[in-house]
Amino acid sequence: MVTPTQKQKTQAYLDAADREFAAGNPLTATERLWDAVVSALSAVAERQGWPHANEDELYAVAERLNELDDDPDEFLLSGFSAALYQPDKARYGFFDMSDGCDDDARLIASAVINLIRELEQRYDHIPAKSAR
Known about the structure:
Elements: H1 4-22, H2 26-48, H3 55-68, H4 75-91, H5 102-122
C-alpha cells in the first residue's frame, strides 16, 4: 500500500506548484509539478520493488501503471513526458502559462494517486512485471 505520508508528499508538491504559479514563478512551479510526478511514481515503485532511480525507470513505472489502467489512452505516458519537459520550457522561455500546459503535470500526479487508490481497492498488490 502506498502510505498516506507518500500521498501527502505528492500533494505538498502540487500545493507548492500552485503557490509558485500564483506568485508568477513558472520555472519553480513546473519543477514542483515534476517533483509531484516523481513522488507519485516513486511511491508505487518503492512499494513494488521496481527500479525508479532515473527518468527512464520512472517512465517504465508509468508504462506499467498505464497497462493496469482501464483507460486505453496513454495518458500517463504523455503526461509524464509533458511534466518532464515543462521546467526546460520555462527555463528557456517557451512556457506559456495561459495555454494550460501546467495542467498536464497536475493531472498525471493526480491520476497516479487516483489509480493507486483504485488498484488498492481492487487488489491487495500490483504484480511486478519485468523491466522493459
